[in-house]
Write a structure and sequence with these properties.
The protein is about 35% helix and about 30% strand. Strands 5-12-6-11-10-9-8-7 form an 8-stranded mixed β-sheet, with helices on both faces. Strands 1-2-3-4 form a 4-stranded antiparallel β-sheet, sandwiched between helices. The chain starts with a strand and ends with a strand.
């Protein structure tokens, strides 16, 4: 049983294709990162079956997909190529805890997330006023400003300019806006590109002045339904377990828990 590593997305796909396809939901983070990751790894059992994967995203943060705890501990003991000791690691809770404890280094949790999958969509009740529409080029400045607000709200350091980031999503028709009764955009949500039949809802954001009117529920419902109608087999999203409001909302809309995720930072 051993870890193998590559910086080639093509080589990684060839080695781990069966494992990735068997459970794309649990491997969603790795699937999303694999074309831009600095390093990709897979864990093979004695019979050659791949049962675990990871992606190391800049600036050197390993992200576990579906990984046995044994494999996580082995990685902690053997280390990554080059001997680098990551400052952070994230992924499914059991694997991250096994890895962190096996390093012997002190660590602390930074975020606890829950991965949800959309079952049968349930419309918001009561239905919010307004309607959903696909964002267009004229919306780029507004959406870029909202994305900066979103990044700050979730504790990330906002980038200087999100124009390219949002233009990509808007030009591909992957970002929806909710218009209030007066026609103004009041909320947004986006969906990732589809990989292995799965796509993730993200960038769910309503400016503070427009909250408590159900707009986030409306746009989240709309973007999930649009993804299903477009042929996505599994619509996923992550929630912060520290936010009971959003967790309850997504359950009401038909999302069901898949697995819990953890991010940790090493403190020594």
């Amino acid at each position: 049983m051993t870890w193998s590593f590559t910086d080639s997305a093509a080589a990684f796909r060839a080695a781990a294709a069966g494992h990735l396809a068997a459970d794309p939901a649990r491997n969603t983070a790795v699937l999303t990162l694999m074309d831009t990751a600095a390093l990709l790894g897979w864990w093979a059992e004695a019979d050659g079956r791949v049962t675990g994967v990871l992606a190391v995203a800049p600036p050197g943060v390993p992200a576990f997909g579906a990984v046995p705890e044994e494999a996580a501990r082995a990685l902690a003991r053997g280390g990554l190529p080059g001997g680098a000791e990551p400052a952070e690691v994230r992924g499914e809770t059991a694997a991250v805890e096994a890895y962190a404890e096996a390093t012997g280094r002190p660590w602390a949790p930074t975020v606890r997330m829950r991965l949800f999958r959309l079952g049968e969509p349930v419309p918001p009740d009561p239905a919010p006023e307004g309607r959903a529409r696909v964002a267009d080029e004229a919306d780029v400045p507004l959406v870029a400003a909202w994305t900066r607000e979103f990044a700050a709200a979730i504790g990330d350091e906002p980038a200087e300019d999100y124009t390219g980031f949002v233009t990509e999503r808007i030009s591909e028709g992957r970002l929806l806006l909710w218009e209030g009764p007066d026609g103004r955009p009041v909320s947004m949500a986006a969906v990732s590109r589809t990989i292995e039949g799965q796509a993730r809802v993200h960038l769910v954001h309503t400016p503070p002045a427009e909250r408590r009117r159900g707009y986030a529920a409306g746009v989240t419902d709309a973007v999930g339904r649009a993804a299903l109608d477009g042929g996505v087999a599994q619509v996923l999203l992550f929630t912060d377990l520290a936010n009971p409001t959003s967790n309850a909302l997504y359950r009401r809309l038909g999302y069901r828990p898949v697995t819990d995720h953890l991010g940790v930072r090493f403190t020594g």
